[in-house]
Specification:
Strand order of the largest sheet of chain B: 2-1-5-3-4
CATH superfamily of the largest domain in chain A: Aldehyde oxidase/xanthine dehydrogenase, molybdopterin binding domain
CATH superfamily of the largest domain in chain B: Beta-grasp domain
Number of domains of chain B: 2
Strand content of chain A: 15-25%
Number of domains of chain A: 3
CATH architecture of the largest domain in chain A: 2-Layer Sandwich
Helix content of chain B: 25-40%
Largest sheet of chain A: 7 strands, mixed
Helix content of chain A: 25-40%
Strand order of the largest sheet of chain A: 3-5-1-12-9-10-11
Number of strands of chain A: 28
Largest interface: A-B, 57 and 57 residues
Strand content of chain B: 15-25%
Structural class of chain B: alpha+beta
Oligomer: heterodimer
CATH topology of the largest domain in chain A: Aldehyde Oxidoreductase, domain 4
Number of helices of chain A: 20
Shape of chain A: globular
CATH architecture of the largest domain in chain B: Roll
Largest sheet of chain B: 5 strands, mixed
Number of helices of chain B: 5
Radius of gyration of chain A: 28 Å
Structural class of chain A: alpha+beta
Distance between the termini of chain B: 44 Å
CATH topology of the largest domain in chain B: Ubiquitin-like (UB roll)
Amino acid sequence: MTMTDQPTGVLGSRMLRREDPALLTGEARYTADIAVPGALHLALVRSPYARAKIVSIDTSAAAAMPGVRAVYTGAELADMWAGPMPCAWPVTEDMKNPTHFPLAVSQANYVGDGVACVIAETAEAARDAVEAVMVEYQPLEAVVDLEDALSDRVVIHDEIGTNRSYTWDLKIEDTEGACDAAFAAAAYKVKERYIQQRLIPAAMEPRAVLAVPQPFGGDMTLYSATQVPHILKVMTALTLGIPEHQLRVIAPAVGGGFGSKLNVYAEELLCVGLARRHGVAVRWTETRSEGCQATIHGRGQIQDIELAADADGRLTGLRVRLIGDMGAYLQLVTPGVPLLGAFLYAGVYELPKAFDFSCTSVFTNMTPTDAYRGAGRPEATYAIERAMDSLAYQIGIDPLELRRRNFIPVDKFPYEAYTGLVYDSGNHDGAATLAADMVGYDELRARQAQQNVPGSTKRLGIGLSTYFEMCGLAPSRVLASLNYGAGGWEAATVRVLPTNKVQVVTGTSPHGQGHETAWSMIVAEKLGISPDDVDVLHSDTAIAPLGLDTYGSRSLSVGGVAIAMTCDKVIDKARQIAAHLLEANPDDLEFTGGEFRVAGSPDRTMPLAAIAFEAFTAHNLPDGMEPNLEAHTTYDPPNFSWPFGTHICVVEVDTETGEVEVIKYVAVDDCGNQVNPLIVDGQVHGGVIQGLAQALFEEAVYDADGNLRTSTLAEYLVPAASDVPPVITGHTVTPSPTNQLGVKGVGEAGTIAATPAVINAVVDALSGLGVRNVPMPASPNTVWSIINAAQGGSQ
Amino acid sequence: MEITVTINGKAHTADVEPRQLLVQFIRETVGLTGTNIGCDTSSCGACSIHLDGEAVKSCTLLAVQADGHSVTTIEGMASADGTLHPMQQAFMENHGLQCGYCTPGMVMAATSLLKENPNPTEEEVRIGLEGNLCRCTGYHNIVQSVLACAKG
């Protein structure tokens, strides 16, 4: 296999995180921890019905309660909004987007939809008053089944006259009929339907908002538990008609996001709007049950996938039909999520230009969906990896062998895929071989043959996932072609202070990823200084005014690369100053270890520290040069980055109880060069368990009337330590050729890879019993029922 | 009603509503915000503290129930000179935290676990921490942190 050595030195070391002491001692401040004397507390009256007309709202009793400052209905706040809640991704020109305000005005469309709100002197007073707001509803029939929604039997939003939001086809030029021809000529065909259940992101920190106005100065500071302070600033300005330059958004310590805090929420807009109206700070902290109901959900798709293959099992055609569950409204990027997966349906396999993809997305009376760790790509990966196992079973060959026959050969990278996108680099067989070696694949297959004999009640299953990831969420021009409403660039400033300490300003906005540590390592490596001498500033639009924030595994491959490029600019300027002071030609200067040396004259040196001070005093700079040593970059990457890997899950299924025990999990991930392998492994561990949780534990369950039955962490099964296995990690290193650090993303890889690996293992364990599919989550009850049905049972 | 709770060695006396939870007393009345709230159902353990030396979820007690008792929060774990508690140090060295929100509760639960069982197996650590949820780490490095701390 072609493996490149990890970089040595600071970059590539397992440096401990500088974020940790504050987080470990309680010193870190999350939004709810920030005390502002006199702040009013917001609480929302939320619809208990999935779909209901709001007939009347009587706020008089609530308004008269002690400590209550004001009570508003949606209608009473209608004049506060300059525009409706933003959706930044109109995926087609004719996409239907029902008008959506922070509080519903005439009709509530999911359980948890806000219809009125209270501001009061204490959180308790606000919640007590919510109970006293009398809302008369006229309940209407709710729609919770996607195909029922598609039928328009009941139309949720009168104003758009249909439940269909859009149909989006992935069109590849000059390929009409190619897919049909591939299926007509196929030696093998697979046709399967998979259900991506709804998931609740459940970041451990509930959302929280604090809006602090300066009524006489005109400025407004919004603190929010958000992944996207920059996007939130723009959208808050537009939605409330606040001049953007008077709005400052700060994301303090943020306790996880996973996409759920990549949004613009009603409560953020209400706090800002009401703080402005009343001239006093307004805050809101989510309860967990509000988080389950009114923070976006993830997944929610019906996937129909068909594979065509030749006699050797090589893919010749691929057809995908999706139904996407948008929920009641379109949130920030809701409609775009299925599109992000559209380009990954052939996974790491060679596919001729015989691809037919169409997605139709529908409204339902459930919580809006949006990006959740992986966003479209876990769904796509699940479908192709499950379908590949079905194809292997049909042909009668080992699933690893089938994958090897289909891998894009390593010598074909960079590889132009059937979609026209170019995969930057890859070594899929290398990752698969390492994972197979680590797990002991051949021995496991031998053990499985001995163990899974007729009558065995503990059946061994081995599941593969040879995944591909498309991350970085850029370049901007490609995003434009998908009608995405923003760019994909990232900004960086590197400022060498007079005392040779360095400030880095980044537009990324971490919430657990360790950017302060990682970015300081990049700067230290580039400038030849200690990481301890680098401070990283972020997540405050007054300090870091430019940025597009953190999501889509973009922060390192866009934001980190922007920092590296900015360091180069700093070094270039320092070189000019050093040459001037040393009376040397700039081209004759070498920069190593934080010092310029004149080539061939080892005693003629100038440390960066001296140059920084010289740039500050500006007493003796080259003619025309501006003082100070600082540079800025806004970087728009030339391509996505394409991490990949192989995960192998080994399970034992108890056929008498349906219980699935994961007995080994091996993850081999290739994210190019690693800045900090400690952090990389941490991302993989967490991602894998989140993906495994979809496979085995989690589902947002609605009843037929649209009531969420899993609205607390007592009912929604986020796994505990005792529910999950250790994650054994390994890595191959295939640098990306499209950026100077050779890096790719890794934040979502584990989640993308794990879900199909686990379900493939469960199905593999039960294949001798006639089971060919197991729905998610594969709970003991579900697995037992599937086994029983496959065995012809009727219980 | 008036209560006195000793928190991290210092007595705090306040007049509290009977319905106030201990976690609210710690966070809002005393102003120690290191103890986090992650759910409404005593499921997540983010608010774990030590009450008279034993880990409890501070959302499961009323403030008045802590009257006359001694509480340790995450703010009371490191030494006055800034030295981290060995469990905090182990979490740092083993990357046992990412976003940090579950971390104070995890550290409190883990120190209590080792007090009861100083040399746990990996499985015993996993079972011992099942009342504390984490969404970032997949628990792998949390378990490693606790095992490393036990080894000393």
